[in-house]
Design goal:
This protein has 331 residues and is an all-alpha fold. The chain has one domain: Alpha/alpha barrel (Glycosyltransferase). It contains 14 helices and no strands. Helix 2 runs parallel beside helix 14, helix 5 packs across helix 8 and helix 12 runs parallel beside helix 14.
């Protein structure tokens, strides 16, 4: 790598996007997406994560950037898979108190892709005590609150007290870090920063804590071959007001690059075995998405570039996303 490693980091992201584009069909919603016994983790979860990654990457790169174009194309594909929002209406009728439809929908809403009928139905459910007092882990609760705001559901901001009930918000002893707490802390930062667009969203005490300990956690995860969590920690590192020193990024990305397959796929974990076959879709799609996301976020921070959409809503600053059904598909 060069001193900064920006071009090589970008190559990892480019390869990851090539794999995502080649496997877009695997993200498609099947007939079981609306059945009572359907597996959400194999249907809506991959599609929602594809949409979130693409929406985030679009805001971190200029519209003329080929990766911005690819991300926009995949985001359009994901929106079309939802029937341009119509499937969320059907989900609302089938599972009115499930939170995952709103969490997935909110990603599209942040990109200006909205369905007024679903938003009206979701807002009605959100006014019930049954919705407001559903018991959730704090990290998930923080995500649901952010999803409500993205989707136009207004209520008093509860995120401050909720944050302090999360693992990260409690500033725990650093040696208690493990896989589950690692994924929890990354998502807390994702929610606080609107997926990397607002570094100022992280309170000062959490910034100091992460700045001090995150490099050690990242190093430990990569030593263990935990590529998926390692990429999420790289996103966090590049989302803080003052990201870690460049040497930290450089070393981490060299290891990620070595673990990536020629196709662009990144396995979830375990040291790379040259003789091993590439993992199947469900065992590498998320880590590959995170590699693409982390690469875009890292390149932006190392290059000193500002987000293309500083208002944090997938639109030009000062514009208002349309609320008409099916509008706002990115170009």
């Amino acid at each position: 790598m060069t001193a900064l490693g920006v071009s090589e980091i970008r190559e990892v992201g480019t390869a990851a996007f090539a794999w995502l584009a080649a496997h877009r069909g695997d993200f498609a919603l099947g007939e079981d997406a609306l059945t009572a016994d359907g597996h959400v983790d194999a249907t809506w979860k991959p599609l929602g994560e594809l949409a979130q990654t693409c929406q985030s990457v679009r805001t971190h790169l200029a519209p003329s950037d080929p990766l911005h174009v690819c991300a926009s194309d995949l985001l359009r594909f994901a929106w079309q898979q939802t029937g341009r929002g119509e499937l969320f209406v059907r989900l609302q009728r089938l599972e009115p108190f499930a939170t995952y439809p709103l969490e997935v929908y909110s990603v599209f809403a942040a990109a200006g892709l909205r369905h007024s009928g679903y938003e009206a139905a979701a807002a009605t459910t959100a006014r019930t005590r049954g919705w407001r007092f559903t018991e959730q882990e704090p990290t998930r609760r923080l995500g649901v609150l952010k999803a409500e705001r993205r989707s136009g559901i207004d209520r008093p901001d509860e995120s401050g007290p909720v944050l302090r009930r999360t693992w990260l918000g409690g500033l725990p002893e650093p040696w208690t870090f493990e896989r589950s707490s690692g994924y929890a802390l990354t998502h807390v930062v994702f929610h606080l920063t609107d997926w990397g667009r607002d570094p100022a969203g992280v309170p000062a005490d959490l910034v100091a804590y992460l700045t001090h300990w995150l490099p050690s956690w990242l190093d430990g995860c990569l030593d263990a071959g935990m590529w998926d969590l390692g990429c999420e920690l790289l996103v966090v590192a590049a989302s803080l007001p003052d990201p870690p020193r460049r040497a930290t990024f450089q070393d981490a990305w060299m290891r990620i690059a070595r673990a990536q397959y020629d196709s662009g796929a990144l396995p979830q974990e375990a040291p790379r075995d040259e003789a091993a076959a590439e993992p199947d879709f469900l065992h590498c799609y998320h880590s590959t998405l995170m590699a693409a996301f982390a690469a875009a976020q890292t390149v932006k921070r190392l290059s000193g570039e500002a987000d293309e959409h500083p208002d944090g809503h997938g639109s030009r600053a000062g514009s208002t996303p349309t609320r008409r059904s099916g509008q706002g598909v990115p170009g």
